[in-house]
Amino acid sequence: MKIVSIHQGKTLPLPLRFFIAMIPGALVVISMNQFAQPYSIVLAIALSALVPAVWFATDILTIDLEEKKIFNGAWVMGFKFGRVTSVTSIEKVFIHRIETKQTTYSLANNKNISTNYEYHTFLKLDSGEKFFMFSHPVRERIIEKARQAIHKLELSEETLVLPD
């Protein structure tokens, strides 16, 4: 059975995960004033069970070559939420260079523009549908990761399209 899973990072950003983790604590403090102590303890246990689900939710791309299916979605505490796409064949894996610009202003009204590049790797099917695989700011590292993914998917080296 040939299944390749690519973890794309956390579903929620870190500040939002901290904020959501503090909500059960605040609700427990409020419930201590509103309800009897046994009910507040039960509520605290129930709410605290949700924190790991929010904290460890991960975006995942799973490619099953034997059943010819691709799953793209979130993986939360062993449960998968997302969509499954049927695959006839994989056309190519390509790397796209994305330019990001950040403009900063100083008190003297000077303007600085910082330009950075980030590389994104996509999987393209024969049907034309594209799936994001992973990203990295260093060109050599993204090419190395893409070659590892191609090797795991048992594709030929010609399917990898490199950036300019």
What does this molecule look like?
The protein contains 4 helices and 8 strands, in the order E-H-H-H-E-E-E-E-E-E-H-E. With 164 residues, the chain is of the alpha+beta class. It folds into 2 domains: 10-55; 88-164, no CATH class. The strands form 2 sheets. A 4-stranded antiparallel beta sheet has the order 1-2-3-4. Helix 1 runs antiparallel to helix 2. The relative contact order is 0.15. The model has no long low-confidence stretch (mean pLDDT 85).
Give the arrangement of secondary structure elements:
Elements: E1 3-10, H1 14-34, H2 37-48, H3 50-55, E2 58-64, E3 69-76, E4 79-86, E5 90-105, E6 111-125, E7 130-136, H4 139-152, E8 160-161
Major sheet attributes: 4 strands, antiparallel
Main sheet: which strands, in order across?
1-2-3-4
What count of domains describes the coordinates?
2
Order of helices and strands: EHHHEEEEEEHE
| N-C termini distance | 36 Å
| Helicity level | 25-40%
Q: Number of helix segments? A: 4
Radius of gyration: 22 Å
Strand percentage lies at 35-45%
Mean pLDDT: 85
Output the structural class.
Answer: alpha+beta
Low-confidence stretches: none
Based on DSSP secondary structure assignment, what is the total number of beta strands? 8
Give the overall silhouette. Answer: flat
